[in-house]
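FW: tagging you since you asked about this chain on Friday. Here's the raw sequence from the shared folder, copied in full. Didn't touch anything.
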Amino acid sequence: MPPFDTHVTVNGVPQPARTGEPLVEVINRASVELAQVCYHPQLGPIQTCDTCLVEVNGELVRACGTPVTHGLTVRTETTAARSSRKAAFDRLLGNHLLYCTVCDNNNGNCVVHNTTALLKVEHQDTPYQPKPYPKDESNPFYRYDPDQCILCGRCVEACQNLQVNETLSINWEDPHPRVLWDGGSPINESSCVSCGHCVTVCPCNALMEKSMLGEAGLMTDMPLPVFHSAVDLVKAAEPSIGYGPILQLSDTESAMREGSIQRTKTVCTYCGVGCSFEVWTKERHILKVEPTHGPANGVSTCIKGKFGWDYVNSEERLTTPLIRENGTFREASWDEALNLIARRFTEIRGQHGPDALAFIASSKCTNEEAFLMQKLARAVVGTNNMDNCSRYCQSPATMGLWRTVGYGGDSGSIHDIEQAGLVIGIGTNTAESHPVLATRVKRSHKLRGQRLIVADLREHEMAQRADLFVRPVPGTDFVWLTAVAKYILDEGLEKRDFTEQWVNGLDEYRASIAPYTLAHAEEITGIPQDTLRQIAHEIVQADGTCILWAMGVTQQCSGSETSTAISNLLLITGNYMRPGAGSYPLRGHNNVQGASDMGAMPGFVGGYQKVEDPAVQEKFAAAWGVPLPQNKGLDNHEMVHAVHDGTLRAMYLKGEEMGLVDANANYVDAAFEKLDFFVVQDVFFSRTAQFADVVLPASPSLEKDGTFTNTERRIQRLYRALEPLGQSRPDWEIIQGVANAMGAGWSYAHPAEIMAEVASLVPLYSGVTYERLEGFRSLQWPMLPDGSDTPLLFTEGFPFPDRKARLYPAEFIAPLEVPNEEFDLHLNNGRMLEHFHEGNMTFKSAGISQKVPGSLVEVSPELARERGLESGRFVRLVSRHGAVRVRVHVTDRVQGKQLYMPMNNPSARDAVNRLTGSHTDPSTHTPAYKDTAVRLEVLPEMGDNPLPRVNHRYGHPTPQRGVEVERKWQRADYRFPGALYNRLSALRGTQPDPVGGDD
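HL: got it, structure written out here
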C-alpha cells in the first residue's frame, strides 16, 4: 500500500490520506462513525445506498465515491448530512423486512441491523414492499430471498469484478428490480460456480448459506407458520414501541448465540493458494465458512473452500485403528496398533537394514507433521527413503528454479501477479486448479488492462479470456519458449543492464539455444513464427511479466527442462528482482510447498539442506542425538521399483492416495501387494488403505493445530475447530506415538514446540514462531531470526556465492508416447473446479457431487462426428498400460484427436492413472502423466451426460462493468438524497450548513 501523501480535514481534525483513495477510508481510519451499507473495502465504491453522505466543501457527496484530493474539508455531522443518510437508509428498509430476533443472520455482523442501530431508526417512513418473486433455493449451497434484498449491489460487484465470473446483475429498469443470475435463470441452471463471494459480502440475510438456515439462532428452527407469526408479532409492535426495544431484544439473542457458536480461524485444505477464513461451528455442525481478510484471499473462496467441508463429518471417516487378519480388517486399540508397527519395523530393519523401509509424507498435512515424518525416518529408523507428493507435480519446477535462481518457490506474491503488465500461463488451468488466484488475474485483466497469454492444449476459461491463446503440440513448450528467448537475444531485445549485473552464463546459454530458430519452433510446436514474435515483443514491452505454470509443464518428460527454460526467459528479460514480475510454479496442494520445505524429500532435510553435506549432518546429529544417514534415499517413484525388486520391504504412508495418484496404477497396486508390511494413515479407508496391514485413523485440518505454507511461500496458522472424531488423532500425535513405540522418547505437547525445533534447524524458517503467526498474520520465507520475512525474493541478489543468477543450458526431451497407428489419440488429464484431485474429500459433498457426479472424458466435436459419439456414450480407453471405462462429454474445449480426462473419479477401477505409464522426467522422476497415448473403443451402453445440466459450464454469463449504478440513478423514482441541499447551497454561495443547524 502506498504511503500517505496528503491530508484531509475531518470534523476539524487533519487526517493523513492517500491521493485518490476513497474518502470513506480516511473517515474509517479516523474512527468516525459513518453509515456505509454498500461500501466494502475489498470491492471499492459501489454508490448504490447513499448512506455514507457527508459534506465536503459545502456539498453533500458520497464518501465512498469521492476520491481524496489535497485539502478536502469534510464534515460528517451536519444536519443535512445526517438527515440525508437517514432518508437514504429508510429507502433501503422499504426493500427489507426486519425480523432480526428470528433471523439466522443475527450474529453481530449484519450491516442492515447495525446501521439501523447506528442511525437510531425508530420507525421507517418507506413502507416495506415485498417483491413479486419467490425465493431461489435451487443451488445446493445457498439461497436468494428477493424479499430481503436491499439491492445494494455488493453481490453483483463481487461476482462481476472480484470473482469475475460475471454471472450476477441487477435489472435496474424493471419495476421491481432484483439480482439476476445469467439475466434471469434459476441459480442452479446458471453460470454460477458456487464460489460464495456473493454470500460472503451480502450485508443482510438476502443471500445465506443453507447450512446456516434454522441452525444459527436460538429461535430460527421453528416451522414456517410459527415463524411467520413471530415476524408478524414483531412488526405489529414496531409502530408503538419503535425499533429500539426490538433491536435490544435481537442483540440479546445474538449475544446468547456466542455461547454455542464457535468461530475458528483456519486455512483451506485444498489447493496451494492458501485461503484463510473463519469456520463457524455449532457442536460438530459446520455452519459456514466466513472469509474476511485472509492475506492470500481477502473475502474470496471457491466452491471447495466455501462449501466443500462435508467430508469432515462423513460417516465414512476412520475412527479407530484397523489391523489386517486373514485377509480382512478388524478394529484394534491404539496400543496394539502402535506396538505392532514398532515390532514389524524393528524386525524388518534388523533383517534387511534401515533402507528396507520407506516413508511418504502428505501434502495435505501440516508443516509440523511433515517435519516429524522425516525425523521419524532419519532419526528413529535411520533411512533417507523419504518423499512427498511434490514428486508427482512440482519437483521439476523446483529443479528448474534451483538451477537458475537458487530458490524453488514463487519469486513473489499473488499481489505481484495481479500487478504485472503481462501474465503468461503455460500448462495451468488456473481458474479451476487455483480459482482464487485466477480471480486476481481476471480482475486485473478486466479492470486494469493487464495482458494475458495462455499456452495450453484445452480452451479452458483462462484460454477463453486470453488476449492470445496458443495450442502447442503436446510436450513441446520447451521448444517455443527457447525459440522466443533466442529471438529476443538475436534481436538485441534482452534487458542488457540486468544480465550484465545479475546473470552468469549468457555466452554458454546463447550457444546452447542456437538450433531453436523460429522456423524450427514452428515445425515442432505448430505455433506460427509471427505468433512467437508477438509473444517475444509482448514480454519485452510489458511492465513486468509473470509466468505461471503447473502440471501441464511439469508432468512431462521434459518438465525440469521446460521449467528451466521459463526461468531462463525471465532472466534475459529482467523479470526477476522487481515487483509484478517473476516465476510462479503454482503449487497444487495446500501444503505441498511446506512438505518439501520441511525436508520430506530423499536428498534434503529441512530447508533444502543436503543430506550429504557434512556440516548439515553435524548440525542435525547434535540436535537429535543420533547420526543422520548419509546417502540420498529413494524417492516415491523409485520406491515402487524397489518393492518390485525386493529391496524395499516396508512402507509407512500418510495422507496420500498413492494407489490412485501415482502413474501406472496397476504397477503400483502390484507393488503394494508385495510389501512385507504396509502402514497407511488417513482420514478415510482409501483405495491405498485396502492394501495395508495397519490403518491408522487421522484427523483432518479442522481437528488440529499447525501451519501450512502456500504457493507464495506464505506460512499461516490453523487452529483446531473440532475435537477429533472417535479415536482419530492428529497426524503429529500418531507419528510421535510410532516413534515412541520404537523407543524415541519424544515429548512434543503442541505443534508450536515442533515449529520451534524447525526454526532452530531450518534457516528459511528461522524467524517463525506461533506468536508471529497469531490470527491472520503470516510470514513468507526466507525468514530472519528477528521475524523479518521476504515477500519478494532476490531483491539483493540471488542465493549463490557471487549473488548472480545462472542461465542454464537445458535440453529438450521429446515425448515418448507419441500417438501411432494403434494408439492414435493423445490423452491429457488434470483437475476440475468442483473436485479436488482424486475426489476422496469432495465426493463426500452431496452438493459438489450433484454438480459433477463422476468422471468423464472430453471429446472434440470433430472426433465425435468421426467416431459416431455423443455425450453419455460409454467408451473404453486403452493405453499401453491399462484400460478404463468412462462416459463421453462432447465439448469444443478440446480439439481434434486430443482427449481430456479429469483426475477425479469415485471408481478406483476406472481412474485415469490406470492409463498412464511409468516413464518420468529424468531429473526428478516426476511421472510424465501428460504423455499418454490411447485408443478409443465405442461401447454399446448409453448413459446420461456425465456433466449434468446443473453444472455451471452450460450457463451464459452476463459480463458488465459492475453494478452499473448509473442505471439506477436514471430511474424515474430515484432522487439523490442531498440534491435539494446541494441546489440550495449553490444558490446561497456554498455556505456550509452549521453542525446541528437547520437544513
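FW: Confidence is low (pLDDT under 50) at residues 994-999.
HL: agreed, and Residues 167 and 957 are 5 Å apart (CA to CA).
FW: great, closing this out.
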